[in-house]
User: Fold ABC transporter ATP-binding protein from Massilia glaciei.
Amino acid sequence: MLEMRKVGKIYGKNVVAVDDVKLTLEAGVVGLIGHNGAGKTSLMQMIATLTRPTTGHILFNGTDIVKDPDAIRRRLGYLPQDFGVYPNLSALEFLQYFAALKGVSDPRRPVQVLELVNLHGLAARQAATFSGGMRRRLGIAQALLNDPDILVVDEPTAGLDPEERLRFRHLLSELGMRKLVIVSTHIVSDIEDIAGSLAIMRSGKLVSFGTPDSFIAKARGQIWSATLAPGAYEALGQQVKVLQAKRGAAGVAVRIAHPSVPCGGAVAVEPTLEESLMAQRYAVRELAA
Assistant:
């Protein structure tokens, strides 16, 4: 179990990156959602013991990892957003080096994780010659070397093609059946089919936590579909939040986030997860206005 108690991070004198986060996580896939600058990476770096909280405590199975970082480091796999490779090492040598650093004694493990990320056929190739997507997969492999209880990955599908993204989502889903997997992303489609829970961050604060179904349930009755004349669409766009717009022969087909009927002819529709999160974000802005 991972528990965050009033965790905060301040850079310099007054730059608040993370503000009073309280969260308890069990095994499963957790999607950490937020725009760039929301505090996701700062929170993940504190979980990975790369930086210390300014305030609060982070506990892993009851142990304060700020006081005893080795308690989690032995059981942690971490893939940062920016991941580099050593240019003179092959993919296999790279993983063998990291296995030695992590105290992984099984010589078969580097080959096993290369197979998991579909790089086993390129084991002898220099990592410096890999494409961005291949380097990302190599980064995922090193995070899995020590068979971690907690896997923390920051924007993991950046640079992956659609087939690789599908394979990686399946891998995370399988790992989440017995481990805690925290996935930071601002691309909802990366985690909507695999995450058991979502933590939504905004301006350093944890603003919502729940299951995908709970977010969708809250958005029911707030997502609308309508077909508008071009002039009516332009006028309406100044008044409500238009999530999608597509021009066709009959006019502009739109999907709108609004707490009540936004226009004549609008019909309530079942929200997607992404639309549900957008509806909540829009509602928060309206309340703050």
